[in-house]
Specification:
Helices cover about 60% and strands about 10% of the residues. The chain is α/β, with parallel strands linked by helices.
Length: about 725
């Protein structure tokens, strides 16, 4: 099979040709796309953008030591965490409330139904889409951008969000100091009243019992118990403060719908209790060793290492328990979550320390019980006063320190550039959008052109035929011609207008057929891929052309399914023809009609029930051989190749086959299959004849219609022919 016929790869020339053929589709698509782009630019609402630039600062540690400094350490959050914090629902809600955005959005619409549907939840979603927070690469700088169709409102929202975010950071940083201050303020009045009551009690005791001084042993007991009481009170104060912090952190966690971690969950854990028991024993043992040995003694170092290791295990276990109960941790939750773990761990360490000090204090309480009764009572009263004095002094000191630390807290974000009212919209970018519209229009135009080309299955012009049948000769190109009613047989253009451009094109085609092969073909079969493509009219006009040239010509109609030669020639239907000769041996002379000088016609005759059987018979082959002896040219009109096998069967008895292709009618796949069938059947394909050409589908059209006597190109109608 000839591979050239079926080569589907497009060349650059083919692409350019398709583009030229579908130019108006391309042009219309470009114009529509550009027009829609311009319409969009005029109708779309301009969007303005206002931006605020913030520098995220590290949290500053207070210069004043406080009871939390050893337990809580917080590093600066990552920039990604800050981005999430800025766009948090809490901050957006605060912006909505401060700027009264619910009323603002309600006033923007006149639809009462829409007004009723506007609420804070909807506005939160709208604002989240309007706000963009982006970090500047490799810096601590964050840019907050707000896009809106109202430039003034965009500026207000951007500035307000930066303000609210900074206040939010300040609240987070200030929270631990606030909790501490509030706790101390509640404790001071109670301790002050207890101290006054203790002073009044010891005064009455001394007056009533005349006992004013303690002996040395009692003083020593008092000194040690006071020291332990002082430490225990200090740790109790820290314990209450850390518990208050745990409650505060849990309250914050509730706002983000996270599970609250209770201290009871940790305290009831058996492994936690075991570690706490070990820690108490180690600390009691350390207290006893430090009274005998120095700090550098190996025994002291060993017990300190055990204490450190136990505290480490205790912290890890607390962290594991807390973590196991946390559902999710988002960036805004992370800082509070870490502080909660530290507070829980600190609570357990302080409890262990208090228990150890209490255990040491009990040893001196046992000695205290052996003193005389009055000394015991006086010692107890003095110790009570000292404890309350120390606690009262400690509370006052811590209150002042906390107030100073709380007042010194600042936000961790520094405003670099505040937002200003934008004067130019960022959307739509008219120049860029117009450029994109133009490029898109060109792209879509090309796409549409090729889609139309692909969707159009008919062959429109000569170039397509050449591409599909590469290497095959184009024998002729017959222009579209007008069917003039004044002629009895308007389809016979060679007979009616022998010097017309159409007649000349048919005569040129007949000459090309003569020179297509050597020796010159005598029996010529004419067919087409499908019906209605002009094979019968082409056969009749070719036969007339040969007859006018003085050649004895025969036109045979072998389309035994839908014969049309007689109608094209204007003859009455003849009931005796080719079929009668093959089936009943009717003489050739009886089935032959003379149409004009040098031109005879053999019609089909009656339609047979099985045309294929007749055409494959021995009688048919003998008839063709006999006719070759009598005529110079025999034109055989065959049925379409795709309609029946007759054309390929008869072509075996001819000198060659001509395939008629009608521009705008013949389907691409039909021509392809027809060519395949011809090659497969090993028939000689003399070439192709293209009919119905015009100035759009063939470059040869101009030469057929050259200039007439007046020097002007004759205008002709392009009425379609009725063809088979």
């Amino acid at each position: 099979m000839d591979p050239e016929i079926y080569e589907d790869e497009l060349t650059l020339e083919d692409i350019i040709h398709i583009f030229k053929k579908r130019f108006w589709w391309f042009f219309a698509t470009v114009v529509i796309t550009v027009a829609l782009t311009i319409l969009y630019l005029f109708l779309t609402t301009p969007i303005y953008e206002a931006s605020v630039t913030l520098k995220i600062e590290s949290q500053q540690s207070s210069s004043i030591s406080d009871i939390f400094s050893s337990q809580l350490t917080s590093s600066r959050p990552e920039i990604s965490t800050e981005v999430e914090l800025i766009k948090s629902r809490t901050n957006i809600e605060k912006v909505i409330d401060d700027l009264n955005l619910v009323e603002y959005f309600k006033n923007k619409t006149d639809d009462e139904k829409t007004k009723k549907e506007i609420n804070k939840y909807n506005i939160i979603k709208t604002l989240s889409e309007m706000i963009t927070v982006s970090p500047v690469k490799d810096t601590n700088i964050v840019k907050i951008s707000v896009q809106s169709d109202d430039p003034e409102m965009a500026k207000k929202i951007a500035n307000k969000l930066a303000e609210v975010y900074n206040e939010f950071l300040k609240t987070l940083s200030k929270n631990e100091y606030t909790v501490k201050r509030e706790f101390i303020e509640k404790q001071i009045p109670k301790v002050e009243n207890d101290l006054k009551a203790a002073e009044e009690k010891i005064r009455k005791f001394k007056e009533e019992n005349k006992v004013f001084l303690l002996d040395e042993e009692a003083k020593n007991i008092l000194s040690f118990t006071l020291e332990y009481d002082k430490q225990i009170n200090s740790y109790n104060l820290q314990l209450e403060e850390t518990k208050a912090k745990v409650r505060a952190f849990n309250d914050l966690l509730k706002k983000v719908d996270e599970k609250i971690i209770s201290s009871e969950t940790i305290s009831t854990n058996p492994f936690i209790n075991q570690l706490k028991s070990k820690l108490i024993n180690y600390k009691v043992e350390l207290a006893g060793l430090t009274n005998i040995y120095s700090e550098t003694d190996p025994k002291v170092k060993e017990i300190k290492d055990k204490i450190a290791e136990t505290e480490k295990l205790l912290k890890e276990q607390v962290t594991k328990i807390v973590t196991s109960q946390v559902k999710t941790i988002n960036p805004a939750y992370q800082d509070i979550y870490l502080q909660l773990i530290e507070s829980q761990y600190t609570t357990e360490v302080i409890k262990s320390t208090i228990q150890a000090l209490t255990k040491l204090k009990e040893t001196y309480n046992q000695k205290f019980a052996k003193l005389p009764l009055l000394e015991q009572q006086l010692l107890e009263l003095q110790r009570d006063i000292k404890v309350k004095e120390n606690l009262y002094t400690l509370l006052l000191e811590k209150l002042e320190e906390t107030r100073i630390a709380e007042a010194g807290v600042i936000g961790t974000a520094k405003l670099i550039d505040s937002a200003i009212t934008p004067d130019k919209p960022i959307k739509p970018n008219k120049k860029l959008t117009a450029a994109i519209g133009g490029v898109l229009g060109i792209f879509l135009g090309i796409l549409v052109a090729f889609i139309i080309e692909y969707a159009d299955k008919s062959i429109k012009d000569e170039e397509e035929i050449k591409r599909m049948a590469k290497g095959k000769t184009i024998l002729g190109r017959i222009p579209t011609f007008e069917m003039k009613k004044e002629y009895s047989n308007p389809e016979l253009i060679v007979l009616n207008e022998p010097i017309s451009p159409v007649a000349e094109s048919i005569k040129l085609t007949s000459a090309n057929i003569n020179y297509s092969v050597t020796p010159e073909p005598k029996v010529i079969a004419v067919t087409s891929a499908g019906p209605g493509e002009g094979k019968t009219i082409t056969s009749a006009n070719l036969a007339i052309s040969y007859a006018q040239n003085g050649l004895k010509t025969l036109l045979i109609d072998i389309d035994m399914r839908k014969p049309r030669v007689e109608k094209a020639l204007g003859l009455e239907r003849f009931n005796i023809g080719l079929v009668n000769h093959i089936l009943k041996n009717v003489p050739i002379e009886r089935i032959t009609q003379n149409y004009m000088e040098n031109l005879d016609v053999i019609p089909v005759g009656p339609l047979p029930p099985n045309p294929t059987a007749l055409l494959t018979s021995k009688q048919f082959g003998e008839l063709i051989n006999t006719l070759k002896e009598k005529y110079d040219k025999i034109i055989v009109d065959l049925p379409p190749i795709l309609a029946a096998a007759d054309a390929l069967i008869v072509s075996k008895h001819t000198d060659g086959l001509i395939l008629v292709v009608r521009a705008g009618k013949t389907q691409k796949h039909s021509l392809k299959i027809a060519l395949e069938n011809v090659i497969t059947s090993d028939n000689t394909l003399l070439g192709l004849i293209i009919d119905d050409i015009n100035e759009k589908n063939s470059g040869y059209y101009y030469y057929y219609y050259y200039y007439y006597e007046d020097g002007q190109k004759k205008k002709r109608k392009k009425n379609k022919k009725n063809k088979n």
